[in-house]
Amino acid sequence: MPDTDTICADLAPTGILRVGINMANMLLVTDREADGTPVGVAPDMARAIAARLDLPVTLHPYPMPGATADALSAGQVDMVLIANEAERARTIAFSPAYCEIEATYLVPDGSPIADLADMDRPGIRIAVAERAAYDLYLKRTLKNAELVRATGLPAAVDLFVEERLDALAGLRPALIDNAKTIPGSRLLEGSYTTILQSIGTVPGREAGIAFVAGFCREVCASGFVAELLARHGVADRLTVPTHDA
């Protein structure tokens, strides 16, 4: 492992670890402090990395995952906590996942769609939050169904209801809550993908990348991530992955 000075130079070239936080993920950012500082699993992960390296840290909230990813590419932050998705991985160096979330569909009352295999057919219209990890995945994998995009999940829910679309794509925990407010709606069994929540850094900074990868494996194995999930009340909605040593 490279020395700490080299790792810090990679991860925090200004001397401060600037971390972009995706505020749209309500499982990993569960609240804000009075001054607007994000509260949740993702902010605590950022603070833990900074503490390990004895670096000061600043949290930079962004309203959507796409904006969070863009901030890293623009040099506004040094690290982001967002979903690891193939399109994003072209410009972001991702760590192993520190937690996982299933993605599935919500369908309206009376829908003839019985399972995931029925979804990708001509004429099927699916509401989705633009540039969410599952939007990027579905854009790449669906061949026949049409994705109808909105800015953020709440807007996608409104679109699903108002336009009477065939399905709403999203993360299972959030869709469970959405189903409670849409009479007769139901979630499909299974998942079309599992969203991997990771730590992203600037490509090419190998010492920093290696450190963050090792950190993620360690905190998953030690129980630290599980403790964070419990502390923030989301242990029943997220899974901590098992990594090879």
Give an account of the 3D structure.
The chain is of the alpha/beta class. It is about 35% helix and about 25% strand. It is built from 8 helices and 12 strands. The protein has helices at about 5-10, 40-55, 65-75, 135-140, 155-160, 170-180, 205-220, 225-230; strands spanning about 15-20, 30, 40, 55-60, 80-85, 95, 100-105, 125-130, 145-150, 165-170, 185, 195-200. The strands form 2 sheets. Strands 1, 4, 5, 6, 7, 8, 9, 10, 11 and 12 form a 10-stranded mixed beta sheet that branches. Strands 2-3 form a two-stranded antiparallel sheet. Strand 2 (about 30) and strand 3 (about 40) form a beta hairpin. Helix 1 packs across helix 7. The longest helix is centred in the last third of the chain and has 17 residues, at about 205-220. It starts with a helix and ends in a 14-residue tail after the last helix. The mean pLDDT is about 95.
What attributes does this structure have?
10-stranded mixed beta sheet, 34% helix, alpha/beta, 245 residues, 12 strands, single chain
Kindly report how far apart the N and C termini lie.
Answer: 15 Å
The SSE order reads: HEEEHEHEEEEHEHEHEEHH
Helix fraction, binned, reads: 25-40%
Strand content: 15-25%
Structural class: alpha/beta
Q: For the CA atoms, what is the radius of gyration?
A: 19 Å
Shape: elongated
What's the story with the biggest beta sheet?
A: 10 strands, mixed
Low-pLDDT residue intervals, each spanning 5 or more residues: none
Strand runs, count: 12
Mean pLDDT over all positions: 95
Number of helices: 8
